[in-house]
């Protein structure tokens, strides 16, 4: 009754050509980049944003522009370890020294090891770790794994807070 469509190499080539076309379209829509935005907005970055928005250029453009604005204001690439080291003293969040079975970088989060009250510093610490994990991904790796250990978590210990504006 139903036939599985075989994904031939011809189909894959067509997809690849269409994806490259969409990447070029997004690049044109974003316009010229400079400074740190130029370093951040690689072809792999454009591909991730397009993939996240089902290859819709307008939606990917909006999402990427918001990210560029956030990165310009927050400056995650300027966060230094010595500024956030106190957040990492208990090992509540760290990048594992191993990869999962698919070769992905693993971030381990242990919220029960919370040692500070400053939401801003906690977010800077998390941002620092994510940025460094992403920077250390192998060329073809687009994902990372998060392992969260809730041992020792007390509900009242963690307040909800707004992460973005």
UniProtKB/TrEMBL annotation:
Annotated CRAL/TRIO N-terminal domain residues: 42-67
InterPro entries named among the record's database cross-references: CRAL-TRIO_dom (IPR001251), CRAL-TRIO_dom_sf (IPR036865), CRAL/TRIO_N_dom (IPR011074), CRAL/TRIO_N_dom_sf (IPR036273), PI_Transfer_CRAL-TRIO (IPR052578)
Record-linked Pfam families: CRAL_TRIO, CRAL_TRIO_N
Region (Disordered): 1-20
Originating species: Salix purpurea
Record-linked SMART domains: CRAL_TRIO_N (SM01100)
Record-linked Gene3D superfamilies: CRAL-TRIO lipid binding domain
GO molecular function: phosphatidylinositol transfer activity
Bias type Basic and acidic residues, positions: 8-20
Record's protein name: CRAL/TRIO N-terminal domain-containing protein
